[in-house]
Amino acid sequence: MSVIEKISSEEILDSRGIPTLKTTVTLSNGIIGEACVPGGTSTGTNEALELRDGDPNRFNGNGVLKAVENVVGPIQSSLKGTDSDDQEKIDRTMISLDGTPNKSKLGANAILSVSLAVAVSTAANQKLQLFEYLRGLTKISTGFAVPTPMVNLIEGGKHANSGLDFQEFLVIPTGFMTAKEKLNAVGEVISKLEVSLKRNGLDGKLGQEGGFAARFTSNEKAIDFLKKVLEETFKASFFSIGIDVAASTFYQNGKYKITDIENPLVANDLLDFYKKLQESYNIFSFEDLFEEDFDSWKLAKQKLSPASILIADDFTVTNVDLLRKIIADDSIDGVIVKPNQIGTLTETLDFIEEAIENKLKIIISHRAGETMDTFISDLAVAVNADFLKAGCPLQKERLAKYNRLAEIESYLENKQ
Ligand code: PGA
Ligand code: ZN
Hints:
Elements: E1 4-13, E2 19-27, E3 32-36, H1 65-79, H2 87-98, H3 108-125, H4 130-135, E4 148-155, E5 168-172, H5 179-199, H6 219-233, E6 240-244, E7 251-252, E8 255-256, H7 267-281, E9 285-287, H8 294-303, E10 309-312, H9 320-327, E11 334-337, H10 339-342, H11 345-357, E12 361-365, H12 375-382, E13 387-389, H13 396-415
Parallel strand pairs: 4-13, 6-9, 9-10, 10-11, 11-12, 12-13
Antiparallel strand pairs: 1-2, 2-3, 4-5, 5-6, 7-8
Cofactor: Mg(2+)
GO biological process, one term: glycolytic process
Pfam families: Enolase_C (PF00113), Enolase_N (PF03952)
């Protein structure tokens, strides 16, 4: 056992050039743990609050100096001397110190940075790999499984100035065995995609998650292009396509407006469009296919082929109470898990446990604004997640997370 001796924190920049926190926990024996918090661009309305300074003279109000002060001030005072092994007690202490339903007093960014840094320091103190330590905080008793990457190669929505409405066009290397084979296969696809985009005059900028911000004139054209590149590179059965629609970003006055169809669509018509995409391109996963509208999700589950999975992100926001409500409807097949949507490791693990009990697919995810922190890769292995969604490896903050998966895989192989 070791107790928390010191908690320090500083403002750093994320991959978008927007401030975030890097927090360091020092234990009484000198062991340290660090964690950097990510930030979302298309955030769900029910996410815990990311505390920003609001000072227009610094980063358009996006500074996090108040959150840093909350870490080194009240949070440090309340946790100093606490046994670092007791993650749940530490997280619950911060939750009650904050006292608000959405962590708006101290900031979910401030609280999460401490929560994760405590786990990192304790893993080091117990001489465990982070994923091994995190496994001990779960009820899972099976062996470790390394998740399959879900890789965002073409970007739209709020993440890119590409004119595409859908936020992410993802490839999923489902036909390969090991994480290394999967990542190499993704690398081959990226090379081919880059050449094909250039040949068609569609190359240029990258989006926030490192995928191509290619200016296709419709969402379907982007999917069609991706499908052709996949087929030129590998046998069709080796890769699947997924889309994160992030539909709330193009929802206005009760309708959805996409470039594929001239007039704005009601939910039912948008669902028909998804059905057409599913049939033409064998879409494996649909994320956030509607805004927060229970009836449309339920209808989608009935109308779309069960070969696809429907994934909730903005709808469930890593919040176990919201998840329980939605599970009752039997309208989703999987959930996105983003620790910063809820603000502590303990609550993130509660959410995952509930999802596992209900046989939902688990997709651990990064955010649009990232750092080199690879905590989510360890978390994904710790909970035997089905997928890790960490953007396009052309951006180093994303590559680091996939590389950590491969590193964990090697570690597990060498242990056998
Ligand atoms: P965000 O994007 O980090 O901007 O929320 C990721 C996602 O929607 O999955
Ligand atoms: Zn999403």
